[in-house]
Design a protein that fits this description.
With 736 residues, the chain is an alpha+beta fold. It contains 21 helices and 31 strands. The longest helix has 18 residues.
Amino acid sequence: MQQGTLMRKVKSKNWKKQRYFKLQDDCMTIWYQSKRTGKTESAFSISDVETVREGHQSEVLQSLAEEFPPERCFTIVFYGRRGNLDLIAGSAEEAQCWVQGLRQLIEPRSFPLTSALVSRTWIRDWFQKADKNKDGRMNFKEVQRLLKMMNVDMNEDHALRLFQAADKSESGTLEGEEFVLFYKALTQREEVLSLFQDFSEDGKKLTLLELVDFLQQEQLEDEGTEELAMELIDKYEPSETARARHVLSADGFLMYLCSPEGSIFNPHHRSLWQDMTQPLCHYFISSSHNTYLIEDQIRGQSSIEGYIRALKRGCRCLEVDCWDGPNGEPVVYHGHTFTSKIPFREVVSTLGKYAFKVGDPSPGAGCHGWPSAGGATRLVPGDSKSHGEDGHPKVPTSPSPTPQELKHKILLKGKKIGRLEDTLDGLGDEAPDASDDDNGAEAEEERRKVKVGGTQHSPALQKDKESLAQALSDCIIYCKNVSFRSFQEARSHSRPSEVSSLAEAKARKLIRDAGNEFVRHNAWQLTRIYPSGMRTDSSNYSPQEMWNVGCQIVALNFQTAGMEMDLCDGLFSQNGRCGYVLKPPFMRDEETPFNPSDPSSRKGPGPITLTIQVISGQQLPKVANSKDGAIIDPLVRVEIHGVPADQAHQETKHIENNGFNPCWDETLQFQLHVPELALIRFVVEDYDKTSRNDFVGQFTLAFANMKPGYRHIHLLSKDGTSIPPSSLFVHIRITE
């Protein structure tokens, strides 16, 4: 990659500033400076970059399409809520140099699995950070600085012993392999070595039979254990000699425990593992609210980036609120607010590129072509794949189609003239149904309460009773909006092809007053829940209480990080991240007695006991914006999210001044009455006795995806992205 390239940094059609961009010597940082002043403006780390997109793939670059060819344009996309960086290179060759170079730098960002096979990139990164005078060597003072950077408050005498042991040349400095030795000593895992020696007769290796014993007794692997043991040795043993003898060394053992096979998340559930031939209403469906917004609900920015991020996160239900725009071109924005507008045409183009993207390495990607639903007050894009040559929809004849039947199709959710049966018969001459999900009486009342810019809008502005075009009506298949009046009325007059939308407050009231009826209703018809209109800051409600009664389309503001989105990501991280999760059997029965407020109503075995031994942590990150030299005091909180009787949390004590290898060795115990609906959230915080604890990392998963035994939990950031090599080491026991 070139070092020091003049490019245009673009923020709008009229804001294009020339900046020099340069990759630093550490190959981990990029800074850019003003061409006019020579002053460094900003810098970012390669680890902050999620992906690089070529061409006109942002609203800003699309607006400049006539001025600059796509070959010179590219967009750097960052993790979290940081804005994208749109750049225009001086030539197509320069653009390709940066695009390919950045991709090579961000692609191998895998974390070191063991102290024996630590990534050379990872070691080089730490070495260069600590080598303050850049002489390629590290003296003891620089080692002490490194320990502070790595979140370690180590006794000076002990640090000196590690330093001297690694200094084989006795030069008083570390270089090359000496630093590797120091790093290995620093990352020695005593708790894992002790476990290894419990099953190793000679304390140096695990024979094939000893490894089988460990897998059966501790990991509770019960099928094909000997074959699994052979696979693990072949895959994770670093020594060729040991592999040939079918034994596993201590380094290989640690490598297995840090691998996907040693993760708390069942690796078989990462891929598609559930039945996809059930009716749509039998699945929880990953859903977003006002997908186009990436900030607040009143003055925030609308962007196609909202759709890209949601789809790459596995979202299957999107919102496209369409309104009349200039020159007869529709625009998308949050109506009757000051949010910015984006052309409807750009939204459709974006959905075409990302709706069924397969094999994307980014978090949340891999929708595998499962059907995507769209909801809008005016209009939503369709998919040509779902229509025949005559323009009529190509749809399964069943009134309750399955995800398998609807694969690679986009369903439109909205108002409809007449019935589904009429559309399939080519009819449809009835008057429009005036029902509208988000514009019902309840939502209208909420919007009356919301003041925009200090002015309270009249109800007339909040809802337009426009006539519905027949062509648009004919696109509504299976997801016709109907107003919800009561469960009895729905049972008598509604159809499985229809869907009702409820604000969160209305849904909570129904849960309190008629929990069992709500579960039964959701066994045969779709229900969508959306945030209160009072959540102008794009905050979220807890989706768990809605899932507890079987609501399928629980719409959240994907742009807002926090516990609610952690639960959403945790539930939908399974089943190939396809955005569909099959509900438990007792929630798919239209005559089910289940009520989440009464766990005994669930058919099946009694409560189970979940015992979690929190053993240790590894290389926990520092708190954002912390002071130089600050070291965290970590604690672990385990939260259970499920039916009311299962809601609970417990936490460990905090460990002072050790974010590198804290050891808690504490046991937490929970009783789960409805484990099928339980989500387990592990949260690491930096303890503060005078103020609120600071967030460090988290990991959330459904109980159904949890593996027993000794497991590693690879932590995620507040935005749900990986923060290698940070992890927790735990022991899980499940008893009835």
